[in-house]
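Table 4 source record.
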Amino acid sequence: VKPHGALYNMASVDEAIAKAVARGVARSTRKGETLVLVGLANSLMVDAAKKAGIPVASEGFCDRGYTSDGNLAKRGAPGALISDVREVAKQAVEMVTEGKVTALDGTRVSLKVDTICIHSDTPGALQIAACVNSALKEAGVEITGIREVVGIG
């Protein structure tokens, strides 16, 4: 389960909204099934899911710029959207293999990720995804399902 757009962003930084999302996922889980919540790495949404006992995957964005506090740069900010295929792939590998991301100001930020988001509405998204996949495999990363990553697969 992944909240979209503004709700995702608000649940990442607002504890009450993060808890409400976690409660919603918990209440939507039927007997015998397990839902995984996907949230921004290092966010309040990830914390709320962990506290609620919900399996959660920490998400990194390889096609977005980060601020020095580990949040996504606002879309209108210079460098917020990364469109160079090589830069996107480099950031994906950095997040997965090093557990870090280089913020727009050059700061190295800790960012342990379980899953990577590539926006499908980004021009060239298919080429970006293929390049990221190749770069991760070349770096020795095993591409697997989210349930396996969070330990319920």
